[in-house]
């Protein structure tokens, strides 16, 4: 597993690293922009990728974007990625068939 994906960082450390308040980090979670895991005791656990994401969100917010705009951009980006992946799979499928034929 990639170390950047491991959710091991507490919200306090996230705040120290990002300069965001706990309230801001929780708000971004409420708006479904970040998705921390929870320990058995209910403690939020973040990854390094989450920290990068939080910094990206904070920069966009500082530039005047609203959370709904960020979420809409994410959905568009994910749809584009899904489309590219599907096209790649289709191309790979047809490419394999073309090479198997005499």
UniProtKB/TrEMBL annotation:
GO molecular-function terms, A-Z: DNA binding
Domain HTH merR-type, chain residue ranges per copy: 8-76
Official protein name in the record: DNA-binding transcriptional MerR regulator
Domain of life: Bacteria
UniProt entry keywords in alphabetical sequence: DNA-binding, Repressor, Transcription, Transcription regulation
InterPro entries: DNA-bd_dom_put_sf, MerR-type_HTH_dom, MerR_fam
Keyword Disulfide bond found: no
